[in-house]
Specification:
With about 300 residues, the chain is α+β, with helices and mostly antiparallel strands. It has helices at about 35, 55-70, 75-90, 155-160, 170-180, 225-235, 245-250, 280-295; strands at about 15, 20, 40-50, 50, 95-105, 125-130, 145-150, 185-190, 195-200, 200-205, 210-215, 240, 255-260, 265-270, 275, 300. It has 2 domains: about 5-130, D-amino Acid Aminotransferase, Chain A, domain 1 (2-Layer Sandwich), CATH 3.30.470.10; about 145-295, D-amino Acid Aminotransferase, subunit A, domain 2 (D-amino Acid Aminotransferase, Chain A, domain 2), CATH 3.20.10.
């Protein structure tokens, strides 16, 4: 599954520390921490009819991640929202938009790893694109196809996955394996051999009507993941957070993934094995419909 270029994005204006710059001229210093060592945190946001769904939850996670990395300065919630609005208005955007919000430790006085070299404050990048959910075309009659990667997710004692950081090489290596295998994405296991997530999304399995997802130990506390668990609670759908292995995944009645970029996407095959009946199951369909209804009525308005 390869995302295609959207002509609407040809002349995007990117917001870098409050300055709006054409995408082809967008400039981040070679001394910036994101360039030097991937020393940055990020969030993906989605705009629905002028509102960003779960905006405050995303911004809270961004702040937690920046604090975990000991950033000395973090923009306030209102400062972040103001720059998001500025970017959307400059690009005349109000619906079906994905935003990537990146906060780096900032520009260093000289190249090097030491955070004490960062004396200019953080760099904030707001990138907004016209972009439909990424799995829209892939989840038709066949659903997503996944394969199991040889690349493991770190445990918290190695690099805590609940820091939503820009060091994405694990995910990229797993995605390379998925591409080579002709799969849409890769399932990634934790160091113990339990399912953590995919290279880009959280994983849910449904067996006997119970919805199960991994504990956020070797996977992040996904915002869409949390929303789905909330929908289960609200609508009386049996659910649990616990360790599960590939055996449980292969034997599941249904499987779907969650994420801001792809929303809820059902899975048809994993490692060449058909999941359940090989069609989108009733529980997945119910939760997908409930999620769509929720995004249509909730969110923080950022543009009129």
């Amino acid at each position: 599954m390869l995302q295609t270029f959207n002509e609407k994005n040809r002349d995007l204006l990117v917001n870098i520390n409050g300055e709006l710059i054409h995408r082809d001229k967008a400039g981040v210093s070679p001394f910036d921490s994101a360039v030097q060592g991937g020393d940055a945190v990020w969030e993906g946001l989605r705009l629905y009819d002028g509102r960003i769904f779960r905006l405050d939850e995303h911004l809270a996670r961004l702040r937690r991640s920046a604090k975990a990395l000991a950033f000395e300065s973090i923009p306030s919630r209102d400062e972040l929202v103001a720059e998001i609005t500025k970017t959307l208005e400059a690009n005349s955007m109000r619906d079906n938009v994905h935003l990537r919000l990146t906060l780096t430790r900032g520009v260093k006085i000289t190249s090097g790893m030491d955070p004490r070299l960062n004396q200019a404050g953080p760099t904030l990048i707001v990138l907004a694109e016209h972009k439909a959910p990424v799995y829209t075309d892939a989840v038709g009659s066949a659903g997503l196809t996944l394969m199991t990667s040889s690349v493991r997710r770190f445990s918290p004692d190695c690099l805590d996955p609940n820091i939503h950081h820009n060091n994405l090489l694990q995910s990229i290596l797993a995605k390379i394996e998925a591409n080579a295998a002709g799969a849409d994405d890769a399932v990634m296991l934790d160091p113990r051999g339990f399912v953590a997530e995919t290279n880009a999304t959280n994983v849910f399995v449904i067996t006997g009507g119970e919805v199960v997802t991994s504990r956020p130990i070797a996977c992040p506390e996904g915002i869409t993941r949390d929303t789905v668990l909330g929908l289960c609670r609200e609508h009386g759908v049996p659910h649990n957070e616990r360790d599960f292995s590939l055996t449980h995944l292969y034997n599941a009645d249904e499987c779907f993934t969650t994420g801001t970029m792809g929303e809820l996407a059902w899975v048809g095959r994993v490692d060449g094995r058909t999941i359940g009946a090989g069609t989108r199951g009733p529980v997945t369909a119910l939760l997908s419909d409930l999620f769509t209804e929720l995004t249509a009525r909730e969110g923080v308005r950022v543009v009129d």
